[in-house]
Amino acid sequence: MPGIAARQSASTIGRATPSRFPVLILPLHRKWSRSNVPWVTILLVLANVFVYAFLQSGDARVYARAQAYYEQVNLGALEFPAYVTWLNQHGRGAQPIDAHPDRPTGFMLAQMQSDRAFMADLHADKVIVPTDPRYAQWHDQRAQFDDILDSAFTPRHALRFSHIEPGRMLTAMFMHGGIEHLLGNMLFLLVIGMLVEGALGAGWFFGLYLLGGLLAASTSLTWHWGEQGASLGASGAIAALMGAYCVIWGLRRVKVFYWFFVIFDYVKVPALVMLGCWLVWLVILPWLDAGTHVDYADHAGGLLAGTVMAWALRRHRRVRESFVEEDERVERQAHDDAELERAQDLLGRMEIAKAREIFNRLDAAQPGQLRVLIALYRCARYQGQSTALDAAAARVFTLPAHADGDAREQAQIYADYAKACDGSPRLDAATLLGLLPGLQRAGQDDCIEAIVRALIGREPANPALPVAWFALCLRTPEASPARRERLRLLLDRYPDGEYAAKARFLLGAG
After folding, report:
1. With CB atoms counted within 10 Å of each terminal CB, which end of the chain scores lower, N or C?
2. What tens digit of pLDDT does each residue of 372-428 get?
């Protein structure tokens, strides 16, 4: 689960105790790039770091002042023995404060302050009772000590159990109980945030994060109602992102890093499997990890809240499927690249049947790949069957050229195809003329000239040919021999056509 959701008594001095069980399950299947920078996630991380580094940084001085006051008025002389007696009465005599009474005051004070049950009884006057002759002095000194503690930033803004305070529910989401707590949460936020923000977009992601954190805090309040203590940390909101992630990716297999005590590795599993693992772990861990002050109710509430919200967002089509499917596209592309390379090797060794089988499989799985169509053309070329060659060339030529590089490759294939046809390509004029726009954008005028010349020789009455030829003339540098030669051909072939007059004008002007 994400870092540590710190749960501590309202006036704890010291840090939250981390989990004793080194278990980590983290999806790692998408690299950061300039196209998927999660700006909201980064801003949330910076906000958490700012709160901890600047707003909470003065707490240590407040705690030091509180401890100095505690030692000055010697509150420990009364409270520490009372705490030991209370531990023994409650069957907890093996606590560190009891086993090591010579510990420094700071250690014993931190142990006592972090014991929520004892602090609840202490503040309820069940430990030092009003009939005790020392009660009045102790009560005033304890109140002063608590006031000093409460002046720290963390106690004033952390979520208090048994109190409904929306403001604290929000501010507690940006506070942490120690550097390990902060770093653990921010690691998860960066990894999960990039994935969920990319899938939902900045607005829905931010809303899910905040609402998930608030619902997690509500779960914590419900679970701990009637107790003394406080909770803080971004873990509930991050758990909501984790639940949302599992629902968004669903049954898609994702790459996951896991660390279980001393065993760690990567594995590919459906994303929903992680949701099951996290839920089971949240049920088991509170019994295994008792005494660490980790707020597992906060984790569970956030995880379930994120799961439900992501289900609703998916149902209303708010998920960017193109982002979610990107991993599958990358994996498929890597697989296709490897298969294509293997088939090209087979083709180079003239094992044409085996190579064509792979190329056909790639073409069926993802139609419209120019490199695959060119490879199938090569197979037909080596076999020397004119019908198969014409069909393969037609597929190459009818594929739209989305880039200049595609058009250049089509020009190369046309040159080879024309050579195989002894200069007289057999394909219909519509197929060959369909090549011209892409060739023109890529500046392949020589190929355009070869195509139009071949068609003029074969079917000069085609009305599209003088249009294409005149357009080629206009792109030829003025006053150049090539332009004059091309214009004369237009006059020779179409002396009575509408472009003949334009050709005469240009020849006269040039």
Report:
1. C
2. 999 999 999 998 889 999 999 999 999 999 899 999 999 999 999 999 999 899 999
The per-residue pLDDT for 2 is: 42
Q: What are the backbone dihedrals phi and psi of residue 25, each rounded to the nearest 5 degrees, phi first?
A: -130, 115
Neighbours of 275 (CB within 10 A): 21
CA dist 394 and 103 (Å) reads 87
Question: Which backbone phi and psi does 59 adopt, to 5 degrees?
Answer: -65, -35
pLDDT of residue 509: 64
Q: CA triplet 290, 295, 298: central angle to 5 degrees?
A: 145
Distance of alpha carbon 306 from alpha carbon 312, whole angstroms: 10
Quote the CA–CA distance of 26 and 34 in Å, as a whole number. Answer: 22
For 467, counting Cβ atoms within 10 Å of its Cβ (0-12 exposed, 13-18 middle, 19+ buried), the class is middle
Give the full edge-to-edge strand order of the sheet including 6-8. 6-8, 230-232, 159-160
Over its C-alpha atoms, the chain yields an Rg (Å, rounded) of: 38
Q: Angle at CA 273, nearest 5°, toward 272 and 276?
A: 95
Q: What is the rounded CA–CA span in Å between residue 479 and residue 500?
A: 18
Q: Tell me the pTM.
A: 0.73
Q: Which residues pair with 255 in a beta bridge?
A: 268
In the prediction, which pLDDT does 17 show? 43
Residues in the chain: 510
Phi, psi of 391 (to 5 degrees): -65, -40
Our measurement of the distance from residue 423's CA atom to the centroid of its chain's CA atoms, rounded to an integer in Å, reads 54
**pLDDT of 346 strictly over 60:** yes
Under 8 Å between Cβ of 268 and 256: yes
Instruction: Set out the domains of the chain in order of their start, with CATH numbers.
Output: 6-55+165-321 (1.20.1540.10), 60-151 (no CATH), 326-459 (1.25.40), 463-510 (no CATH)
Helices 235-249 and 179-200: angle between axes, nearest 10 degrees = 30
Name, in order, each residue with C-beta under 8 angstroms of 350's C-beta and a sequence gap of 6 or more.
382
Residue 12: pLDDT over 70? no
DSSP 214-263: HHHHHHHHHHTTT---EEE-SHHHHHHHHHHHHHHHTTSEEEEEEEETTE
Q: Is there a contact between 264 and 258 (Cβ–Cβ < 8 Å)?
A: yes
Bridge pairing between strands 253-260 and 230-232: unpaired
Return the percent helix, strand and coil in the chain, to nearest 5: 65, 5, 25
| Cα→Cα distances 36→30, 43, 44, 327, 334, Å | 10, 15, 16, 13, 20
